[in-house]
Amino acid sequence: MFKKLISRCLLLLCFLAANTGNLFAEGKPATELNKTVKVEGLTGLNLFLAQTYNSNRLLFAVISTGVIVILGVIVTYIVSLFIKPAGHTHKEE
Q1: What's the pLDDT score for residue 32?
Q2: 93 assigned to some structural domain
Q3: CA-to-CA distance for 75 and 86, rounded, in angstroms?
Q4: 3-state secondary structure of 36
Q5: Which of 6, 16, 31, 61 has the fewest CB within 10 Å, making it most exposed?
Q6: pTM as predicted
Q7: Cα dist. 78→38, 63, 65, 84, 91 in Å?
């Protein structure tokens, strides 16, 4: 158990060390990254998401993340319905 924890911590440390260059990447200043979505011709959910993206990026990110999590749970449940009858079950260590 302890060996597994140490190996995962080392793996995480290597990943973080390899990606620190991205923290100092040069490019356009953040002030030039203001992009908006055109809302002409959109209705319903598409209009709501476009307006949310344009007005509140944090709320849009939270909504997007929530939808991804919900879809992941649904897909996992559906896959488990097909795997359990085939005899594949979770094994306790």
Answers
A1: 60
A2: no
A3: 17
A4: coil
A5: 31
A6: 0.55
A7: 36, 23, 20, 10, 19
Let me know if residue 91 belongs to a domain: no
Q: How many other C-beta atoms are found inside a 10 Å radius of the C-beta of residue 93?
A: 4
In a domain, 92, yes or no: no
Q: Is 5 exposed, middle or buried (0-12, 13-18, 19+ CB in 10 A)?
A: exposed
Nearest CA to 52 out of 66, 64, 34, 40 is that of: 64
**Residue 52, in any domain of the structure:** yes
The rounded distance, in Å, linking the Cα atoms of 49 and 63 is 9
More confident residue, 30 or 83: 83
CA geometry: angle at 14 spanning 13 and 19, to 5°? 100
- Domain membership of residue 61 as a residue range: 2-86
